[in-house]
Design a protein that fits this description.
heterodimer; A: 523 residues; alpha+beta; 11-stranded mixed sheet; 14 helices; globular; B: 319 residues; mainly alpha; 12 helices; 73% helix; 0% strand
Amino acid sequence: MSSSPLSRTPRGSRIVAVAATGAALALILSGCGVANSSTGGGGAAGDTLRIVLPQEPPTLEPCEGSLTATGIVTRSNITEPLVERNPTSGELEPLLATEWEATGETEWTFTLREGVTFSDGSPFTADSAAFAIDRAVNSDLGCNVEGYVFGDDDLVVSAVDDTTLTVQTVRPDPILPLRLSFVEIVPESTSTSEKVREPIGTGPYAIASWDTGTKLTLDRNADYWGEAPSYAAAEYQWRSEGTVRAAMVTSGEADVAVGLGPDDGAGELGVDYANNETVALRLSGDIAPLDDIRVRQAVNYAIDREGILGSLFTEETKPAAQLIPTGVVGFNDDLETWEFDLDAAKALVDEARADGVPVDTEITLVARNAQFPKVTEMAQVLQEELAQAGLNVKLTMVDTTQHLQHQLRPFVTDQGPIALLIMHGNQAGDAQFTVDQYMRTDGAQSAFGTAEFDEILAAAGEQSDEERATAYEEVFAYQNEEIVQFATIAHMVGEIGLATTVDYTPDAATGDEIRLSDFVRVD
Amino acid sequence: MWTFLRRRIISSAVPLVVVILGVFALARLTGNPASLYLPLNATQQMRDDFAARNGLDDPLWLQMANYIGGVFRLDFGTSLRTGEDAATMALRAFPATLQLAGVTMLLAIVLAVLVGSWAALKPNGIADRISSFISMAAASVPDFWLAIVGIFVFAITLGWLPTSGVASGASWILPIATLLLRPFGVLVQIVRGAMVSSLSEPYIKLARSKGASESRVVFRHALRNAAAPALTVAGDLAVGLINGAVVVESIFGWPGIGKLMIDSILQRDFAVLQAAVLVTAISIFTLNIVIDLLYALLDARVRPAGTMRKRRVNVSVPA
């Protein structure tokens, strides 16, 4: 038989060419890894803590540390603040500052720790601290931490000597040290004109490599001033699906999975913990019929908190009587949650109707998709329960941006009365961060207020220590009795997946900070 | 051929510009994204500062003019989210998607040709029924469901494959298998249908009566004529692949441009979204041009008159 005519015709040779190209492609692709990634990890297998996050940190700039996606990697790992709040006791603990006291009405003085160096070898002094605070709070960088903790006020920071720092505030500020716990200290070599993606800090770990899109690796800082942490390295990856994060822990591909929901399948490796989030309905008390306090009270009576939580959430999820959880300064232990009393709710609505209040106006219940597990189901139950009390309620599920338009000033004003389902996390540890936003007449997230309440709030903010706690406890009691802007529903519970080789007890801060030093390897 | 190429490139440029400007305008119609980037208690002043710092308070036409000016300097803006150069982010993420889509499409075509031909040779036989079933499943099953089920069965329960990520060769398998299903399902039916009609042509009977072997009949004669419609459909499917990779990339943590695009949309990261759309659009237009060329090479009837050298066109008669 003659040789194959395949290669002798134009088409034949083309087929050969295509086949050859295909084979070559296959060989090339099998040889290399996926573009935009590098294979191989750092550190010995057992000595690296492998963590999977819900999203990649957009940046590791320390002054954006109040952004959860950034702070969860940087805070107390790469960089450290002067003082740090213990999430369980609520006390401030010394970190880069060993002592601090109020030395004037608007001045605090900090004594700094000696013998500390940054991971690039430069020494930590009061000048570094002053620089870092100035950069985060007073500059034009537009840092997240500036807006979150300090607002429009600037600080006057000066280094008295190498280990003494004074900070002056515009107004008397009893919680300045707490605010400063959000400012991470960076060396003076850090750019002041741009935010930096990979910072230097004093923390127990330093950045080893960042494969943008794939993996972030931190190595133990050999020059760390404190006790060396258990793990020699930490590897961060990210998966947006909770079920995939849980699967990585159960199949041994990761040691820690953050931000799991109860249905994500972590099983016995899932550990529940009370995070600092509270879910509530915020009522637009400046629009009828929600401007009548009886209607707002009816909303509170109509919600069967125990029933909702029992059927949708885990046991540890508790009904809430106020917008902050226990452990935050100002939490009122004696406050009771509203009783579920449908008859009382109906009676109040009828009474309002008899007085001419337009209770049949359609109220829109607005909730955000995927804000927390089972948010849709909860919103549906709430709509149904409010309807049973005699109110006309329509449910709308929206995405983040639309939800923010309802949540923040200037609010949506052309959609009638709104009952907004919100989730508020107070990671700062002081009630002022909650009430100033949510209860002042001009608060960024407050639908309404009264002049009297504003005075109470302002007075509380000026107290310190015991008086402060008492004053804020009264604020929450006053809110529930006289204002009723909120129907607080639940103190939420988060879940973290932990491999059996990891010893770690989550606390209220776990959702915002994963302190690597708290993880201990068990064999 | 060069005339043809030149014409196609120019006619692709117009829709490209429309797409870019369209995305530009639509994205900015969603308002000031400051609230997504600033803390919740940021003041109005801070929001205004944010808008000013990022040029978002200029009128739309001015923003567009600045953007186009930047494009000519190869400056596509910076990410609101990360502060990095938008073009760098898009170009860094694109090869990963290209690899995923390329390998998937190649496998889909090869498998579709094999299975589709087999099905056409024996209508209503096993291959035919299997391929019909798969095609229907492919059209009905959502890819995110398939991805999660795949992870559950092969990674968690059986432990054969990694759950996700890009760490090893084995981590290619689940993402590709998930993406493969729909193009395979469509192509196998196209190939089968085209083959059935090719195989019933008179020249096939002629070839068979001259004693040609069955494989020669199928691959040398019938398939060549079935290739053209399959190729066109494959081109359309490739477009869907690049977009469908969004789901697979999100679930498997594949660092590709689909995930970059969806994150940019959710975070209103305008510059990165525009850069990613530009990169994707250019690659799709390029792909379409390549397909047109291949189509013309394969089917003489389609070649524009006088644009290619004369070639012998007829079926070769076996020796």
